[in-house]
Amino acid sequence: MHIPLQNFYTFFVVCRAGSMKEAARELHVSAGAISQRMRELELRHGQRLFERTRAGVTPTAAGAALYADIRAPFQQIETVSRRSLADHATRQLVVSVMPSLASGWLLPRLGDFASRHPDVSLSIDSDARVVDLKNDAVDFAIRHGLGSYPGLESRWLMSPEMIVVGAPALLREGPPIRCPADCLAYPLLHDGERRDWSLWLQAHGSASPKARRGISFSDEHLLVRAAIEGQGLALVRDIYAGADLAKGHLRKALEQQWPTQFGYYLVGLRDTFAASGARAFAQWIQAQAAQSRATAALRR
């Protein structure tokens, strides 16, 4: 019985993603289309291939066996397809970036890259999902960490520092801030994990249960926007607040800075760094990061 190759590839993507919704996003089709292809594959295969769970889908024993049979061929096809793009004068370069870094730092600089390298079609993937650079159709990832990624190359870009910022009107009308503990007199705006304020105050000898109170945001760009709107003080990485500080939308509440433990790295396969369009992007973003570091040093 003939089974469309498209259904096998869809099955491969669903297994890899662990979710029909994620597979639909990757393949740019509706979730209903994914479900229909999987039902057709199960019908023609004569066995259930997935167990549906709240978190997504898990292959049955038959599904796992089928995935083991088709995984290597489809991975090889994807790798060849992705790398063959490097031979074209105009190609798409896919870069995975965390949403906060994409909107707060990378976005304002992309016009410069486009004007310098019109032959490279750049695609920014700002999904927070973990990508597999060896198998996914992604060329580079910009990640926050220690720079050690087995089997991959990484190039250090920058290590932002944490600064306390607030809207000028809020700081002008509120109580004076002379030391870190004085920040507790203001509403505090938090990152999604509500850890930064507690750690920062503890590092300055001002630990307090009040440090976890206030609104939290999963996206650092939204955290900065809330600070601009005067909703409270934000403890953010300097690269996310630099443009708004320069424009006067924000003001530093304190001069104390706390270097973050980790840094941002450009991560990719060795072969990717050697490809012409990818090499141009790597050189460009390293230069942009160096410029940001120099600008931040001048502000200190």
UniProtKB/TrEMBL annotation:
Keywords: DNA-binding, Transcription, Transcription regulation
Coiled-coil ranges per UniProt: none
InterPro entries: LysR-type_TF_proteobact-type, LysR_HTH_N, LysR_subst-bd, WH-like_DNA-bd_sf, WH_DNA-bd_sf
Gene Ontology biological-process annotations: DNA-templated transcription
Entry-linked PROSITE patterns: HTH_LYSR
MF-aspect GO terms: DNA-binding transcription factor activity; sequence-specific DNA binding
Domain of life: Bacteria
Domain HTH lysR-type intervals: 3-60
Keyword match Nucleotide-binding: no
Family: Belongs to the LysR transcriptional regulatory family.
PANTHER family cross-referenced by the UniProt entry: GLYCINE CLEAVAGE SYSTEM TRANSCRIPTIONAL ACTIVATOR (PTHR30537:SF26), HTH-TYPE TRANSCRIPTIONAL REGULATOR (PTHR30537)
Protein name, UniProt field: LysR family transcriptional regulator
Species assigned in the record: Massilia violaceinigra
